[in-house]
Write a structure and sequence with these properties.
Elements: E1 4-8, H1 15-25, H2 37-46, E2 52-60, E3 63-72, E4 78-81, H3 99-110, E5 117-124, H4 129-140, E6 143-156, H5 160-171, H6 174-184, E7 189-194, H7 197-217, H8 227-239, E8 246-253, E9 256-266, E10 269-277, H9 286-299, E11 306-308, H10 315-320, E12 323-333, H11 336-354, H12 356-375
Parallel strand pairs: 4-5, 10-11
Antiparallel strand pairs: 1-2, 2-3, 3-4, 5-12, 6-11, 6-12, 7-8, 8-9, 9-10
Helix pairs in contact: 2-8, 3-4, 5-9, 7-8, 11-12
Length: 377
């Protein structure tokens, strides 16, 4: 029996669909909080101005067996994962043995649209989806290009003995002890993991303001400087209220928080999602101390398997991590020219990145071009 495909241009806030959706999300190779219906609904609520949902559901009879949470830009020209800019991993949801069938059915529907291109970010390389995309692309007339994206650092907790060794290793770090002693001179150092909606809502403004200030101190703009991002995280807190999924972790000196992580505990994974710290405590590395504490506490939780440090190649993640997870970026288009342009663009960028001299010349040229553009009337 072929799958019955149902398209929605808006994600229904339907408790029955939510239960079915989340049941399917738990059947993929590695379930993630980003795959849940709650996450998709929060994205839809926060980013209505820039994303138009395109939800593709696959049914066998009345049973939901596949979910593709996609979106278009306002002009409906380009398709992406709905959660692409908020989720560290994105996926076509189905049991692994049905992935080929479901992805094929999704692309049969997408071929009927007027889309100019499809860009799928943050696909896990250990998923069956990349192979399913290649097969569906050939069948439905798309050119597909799949390239490496991010290498996500992870702390695999391992067996009982391995957990004890990991805890002992972290506890023996001289730097960690020095940082904690320095902060203890200002007051007692404590840790807290807030999971109730009320507690998180009360602590959220301090976390968001610290994130914005930290980025300003380094000449950057925080994502939490935008109303949409703040609303998105607040909406996640509301939708997961009562589940202990959203976990706002804090390191405090006395009653003053100096480090935060807005993260998640979901299906054996503790996610290091959006951390920050008080810039006035930078020399004492409070973020490092908070992450160390999270790993230690995760080791004592029987159902916890990994502390996932997510996207981004920050050096501290490489020092903490003992394993990695590769993500991929896939583009699909019916235009051979756009397909070729994407391959050339990535190949050129790879060459530039491998050559510091060329990279410096490119940056200099971009800088001069920016100055010239700024002088135009």
């Amino acid at each position: 029996m072929s799958l019955r495909i149902v398209l929605h241009r808006e994600i229904p806030d339907d408790p029955r669909l939510q239960r079915q959706w989340n049941d399917v999300a738990l059947q993929v190779e590695r379930p993630e909080v980003f795959y849940t219906c709650e996450w998709a609904l929060a994205v839809q609520s926060a980013y209505r101005a820039s994303l138009k949902p395109l939800l593709v559901l696959g049914y066998e009879g009345d049973a939901l067996v596949g979910v593709a949470s996609l979106a278009t830009d306002p002009a409906a020209q380009n398709i992406s994962f709905l959660a692409a800019t908020t989720a560290d991993y994105c996926e076509f949801l189905s049991p692994p043995q049905r992935r080929d069938e479901f992805v094929d059915a999704v692309f049969a529907e997408l071929r009927k649209t007027s889309t100019a291109g499809i860009a799928l970010a943050n696909l896990p390389a250990d998923s069956k989806t990349p192979d399913a995309l290649r097969s569906a692309a050939r069948k439905h007339g798309f050119h597909v290009y799949i390239r490496p994206a991010y290498l996500c650092a992870q702390v695999e907790l391992g067996s009982g003995d391995e957990r004890q060794e990991l805890k002992a290793s972290l506890g023996s770090k001289k730097k960690l002890r020095r940082y904690l002693r320095a902060m203890e001179r200002e007051g007692p150092v404590t840790f807290a993991h807030l999971q109730s909606g009320e507690q998180i809502q009360a602590a959220f403004p301090g976390f968001a303001d610290a994130h914005v200030a930290r980025f300003q101190a380094t000449g950057r703009v925080s994502s939490l400087a935008t109303a949409e991002r703040r609303f998105f995280l607040e909406e996640l807190t509301r939708r997961f209220s009562g589940t202990s999924v959203v976990t706002l972790s804090l390191l405090m000196i006395g009653d003053r928080p100096v480090a935060w992580n807005y993260g998640f505990q979901f299906h054996g994974s503790w996610f290091w999602y959006q951390p920050t710290f008080d810039s006035r405590q930078e020399e004492n590395s409070p973020g490092h101390c908070l992450l160390s504490r999270i790993v230690v506490e995760a080791c004592d939780m029987g159902g916890m398997n990994v502390v996932d440090l997510g996207l981004g190649a920050e050096g501290y993640k490489e020092r903490f991590g003992n394993s990695t997870r590769q993500t991929l970026y896939a583009t699909l288009t019916s235009s051979w020219f756009r397909h070729l342009r994407e391959m050339v663009r990535y190949s050129t960028a790879s060459v530039v990145k491998r050559s510091p001299g060329i990279e410096s010349l490119v940056r200099s040229a971009r800088s001069r071009l920016g100055i010239l553009r700024g002088q135009r009337p």
